[in-house]
Amino acid sequence: MWGRSIARAGRVGRVACPVRPAPLRTIYLVSRSRPRSLPLRTLPALKALTPVRHCSAEVRMMASQERETLPEVAKPINYHVSLFDLQLGGSWGYKGALKIDLKVTSATKEIVLNSKEIDVQNAEVLGKDGSQLAKATGITYDKTSERVALVFSQEIAPADVVLSINFTGTMNNAMCGFYRSKYKPTGEVSADTPKEDDFHYMLSTQFESCDARRAFPCFDEPNLKSTFDFEIEVPKGQTALSNMPVLAEREGSTPGLKFVTFEKTPVMSTYLLAWAVGDFEYVEAMTERKYKGKSIPVRVYTTRGLQNQARFALECAHRTVDYFSEVFEIEYPLPKADLLAVHEFAMGAMENWGLVTYRTTAVLFDEGKSDNRYKNRIAYVVAHELAHQWFGNLVTMDWWNELWLNEGFATWVGWLAVDHFYPEWNVWSQFVAEGVQQAFHLDSLRASHPIEVPVKNALEVDQIFDHISYLKGSSVIRMLSVHLGRETFLRGVADYLKSHAYGNATTNDLWSALSKASGQDVHSFMDPWIRKIGFPVVTVAEEPGQITVKQNRFLSTGDAKPEEDETKWWIPLGIKSGPQLATVDTRALTLKSDTVPGVGEDSFYKINKDLSGFYRTNYPPLHLAKLGQSLDLLSTEDKIGLLGDASALAVSGEGTTPALLTLLEGFKNEQNYLVWSQVSASLANLRSVFSQNEKVAEGLKQFTLRLATPAAERIGWEFQPGEDYLVVQLRKLLISMACNAGHEGFVTEAKRRFDLWATGKDVNAVHTNLRSVIFGINVSEGSREAFETVKAEYLRTDSVDGKEICLSALGRTKDATLVKEYLNFVFSDKVAVQDLHSGAVSLASNSKVRHLLWEYIKENWDAVSTRLSFNNVVFERFVRMGLSKFADHQISEDIAAFFQDKNTVAYDRALVIVADNIRTNASYKERDAALVLEWLQAHGYV
């Protein structure tokens, strides 16, 4: 799944070897609505726990018994799910008939399944011949644990049996389980498409991690794999989709309806089952590669009228299926590959086997109307989800603590595929600028957690769909692949997949396969990266003829305590040295401190070649300045890493902001978009933290203006036919930087183009790739008229990305009255719940008025919380993204006091992250404000 973290922090520590087994007892899960995080004070206590791989088989089994799982009296072999009598409007209810082929492993009078918001009418156990063996005499629900217990009068002996259940459910509007999505069609609609008020509806599913139980009773755990037969009754004019191709259609229960039956799935986990119903059309391509002698159809489905916007995703998808079949040395395992655009979707996409579902902006691109950056996003998200068809679907993590196995790997290999097809995009530099830096940020907080997180209760797993699982996970995989060599690494991955196909596996299984392929003990040097919290900073001290390198845990607050700093990471130093940095020393730092001979205070060197290692580097000030004066000798990744490190070290106090500003000055002539994106990010953080100090804020504004102006004026406003993707993005970024720094000429031109477009004098005056910049600067600098014009465009646009762009631009207003109107609009039914975070992000980045967002939340809490509570993922995202930018201890205290008496279970981890971020920002502001002002004055910026 991609973009669950559009992210959350989760549990801390690693799996321990218990001293004795837990007592055998009936265990019920805690409420999904009340997951609780491990308190931060327990962090130090976890430092000495032993990884599971060092335990005996017996002790590992006992560790797994610590999980709160379903009673092990029966295991599913096959589900036959039949849904019918769908109420397409009104109650949105449906009926279901379920038959589960079970292997009963011990005599029992009770069978417990997962179930949420499902009403079971009756249940019976049948023999394989259809004879009744037992009828349920008691059906009880535990809403807290999301379970239903079926109690039988007769004992069921160990055997292969069939559990038959009749039930009813609801197609909710919460973007999880079996749910409905509303939309406004762009063309003619089939007469039997569901409709209420002004909206039409499509139906689809979202089951990861624990929401298959919302659609039908099931054994909803990843290692309880089975096959699935699925059928559904739908209107004849509607298209039904599922994981497998259609097997047959037959008449429904009443005229106008039909039953659609699908082929049996391979063995898989419940969270990967999927179906959808709607007024769909599709575009199709066949794979070039042959599978069992024939090509596989690859389709992208949309609601009617949007299928042409699916062509770019289709182009990516059919080639990616072939590419991964070669890379993984296993042919794509299903007879078809469908992608579906879903109008309301909480995450970015979901890897359901054979029927991948996507947020519309992650799969649709309108050539000539969509911003080019969405092409990059679509190519990556398509590749990420298709990677899961092998890594996650074919081979699934054994339990949710190893979620990173799915997500970290899919992230890395997704970029690998994009780089293969679009090498001109330089996506590994993009990964370093975006993915690695975001992972660094979250992992530098005390609120972080190890990549592999103990998950006792499956309902807690939402907490670890975050930048640690996705981005730190993929960053350490990149580090490992560079160290082993990409070919060796992929050979080990292919062996891992072949060994565990159609089963479940662990992190240790992957390390074993990679160890065998490489001849190295991957376990020994990767375990700390996976099972320990945080990451190191390597501090360099220079001496004649040598340098000393020392590793310590890096915290954004710069105050790691001894008990938080006991990990010894394996750190590939990747030291480039010599006049042209042409010599590379591949040694690793495995001790807390070590010396490197041959490189000293008179040498020219750069540590962490191409930022392939997941760590910060702290150079002596004079050497940092020397690197800043030799930028032409550094790779794009090196430059991004140098800037990212200097920025983070300034925040923590281990470096200085004057050193950062001096380094930034050297990038005036830079021409690479991805380097400029890091320059922009570093400056944006400075301007955000010091925004309330008027002199410093004005000085940083002038600093940004002088730095960006030459490059912005050089690139100009005009796009050229066939212009390189990175040049297009650079133009947009530099114009934005110049406008936001007050460049009169650029601001005037942005207003001129906006006026021509708004008045209809020239509908092409605002280039599609500059909508975000021009709309944003006009709202920021303009009056109510500009605000209302962009708002009207939001309501009118049929561009897939247009609503996202307009909503973000509206949050740029500095007018307090308009901010309140904007927030009223964001929380109205005009804005989809899935997009509420866009309003929070935009206002949080708007330093002049971000406090008004917090005031609005407090004053309108009932309405705000009611709207956000439709989906906990959205709720958490809004809180975390909306409140993390403040740099004031008093606001932090106010936030804590406000939420003290609230039920914060949907976003409790977000509040910890918010508190950490504000504490970091406020401490940085207080420590460096005078120093920054002094430097700005000395250099003529104030």
TrEMBL record:
Residues carrying the site annotation Transition state stabilizer = Y470
Note the SUPFAM superfamilies from the entry. Answer: Leukotriene A4 hydrolase N-terminal domain, Metalloproteases ('zincins'), catalytic domain
Alphabetized, the UniProt keywords read: Aminopeptidase, Hydrolase, Metal-binding, Metalloprotease, Protease, Zinc
| Aminopeptidase N-like N-terminal domain segment(s) | 92-272
Residue span, Peptidase M1 membrane alanine aminopeptidase domain: 312-529
Coiled coil regions in record? none
Free-text cofactor note: Binds 1 zinc ion per subunit.
Q: Which residues form the active site?
A: E385
Task: Enumerate the cofactors the protein uses.
Answer: Zn(2+)
EC number of the protein:
3.4.11.-
What are the recorded Gene Ontology BP terms? peptide catabolic process; proteolysis
Any idea which GO molecular function terms this record carries?
metalloaminopeptidase activity; peptide binding; zinc ion binding
Q: What is this protein called?
A: Aminopeptidase
